[in-house]
Amino acid sequence: MKARRSPPVAYEMLDHTADLGIEVRGESLSDLFAATGAVLADLMFDPAKVRERGTRTIRLAAGSKEELMVRWLNELIYLREVEEFLWRSLEVEAAGETRLEAALHGEPHDPDAHVFREGLKAATYHQLRVARDGPQWSGRIIIDV
């Protein structure tokens, strides 16, 4: 099942001493990954100012859904920090719990149009949780700032 998300997405900020914690929900595992990608965009830049002029494809595999979440978010941080690609929307398809394919729709950073917000270093395994909660999925992620 493929899921598409654009910010803003509902999420909860978690109280954490030095890092940034978020809790996100999705209707499916694909939707959870799409939602976390949209939340990350909202934390790092203003996605409303990003035009969908290009697409980046991401394919990832990992040993578990938790490892896949960390790899996913770190790949998004890399795209923003190193390649300076910003996304307005995402389409994610999780194949089982250990693989995903995503299309990020956006454009390269334009200093005249885009404003960077929080600088994030990396998603961590600290207190990481990716689980099915009844009919929904939820994720709890701590991000090093």
Task: Describe what you observe in this structure.
It is a single chain. This protein is α+β, with helices and mostly antiparallel strands. The chain has one domain (2-9, 27-144): Archease domain (Archease, Possible Chaperone, Chain: A, domain 1). The chain has helices spanning 29-44, 65-81, and strands spanning 2-5, 11-14, 20-26, 54-61, 85-95, 99-108, 122-123, 129-133, 136-144. The strands form two sheets. Strands 2, 3, 7, 8 and 9 form a five-stranded antiparallel sheet that branches. Strand 2 and strand 3 (20-26) form a beta hairpin. Helix 1 packs parallel to helix 2. The longest helix has 17 residues, at 65-81. It is globular.
Poorly predicted runs are none
CATH class: Alpha Beta
Percent helix, as a range, is 10-25%
> How many strands, what sense, and barrel or not for the largest sheet?
5 strands, antiparallel
Count all strands and give the number.
Answer: 9
In whole angstroms, the N-to-C terminal distance is 32 Å
Blueprint of the fold:
Blueprint: E1 2-5, E2 11-14, E3 20-26, H1 29-44, E4 54-61, H2 65-81, E5 85-95, E6 99-108, E7 122-123, E8 129-133, E9 136-144
Keywords:
145 residues; alpha+beta; Archease, Possible Chaperone, Chain: A, domain 1; five-stranded antiparallel beta sheet; four-stranded antiparallel beta sheet; 2 helices; globular
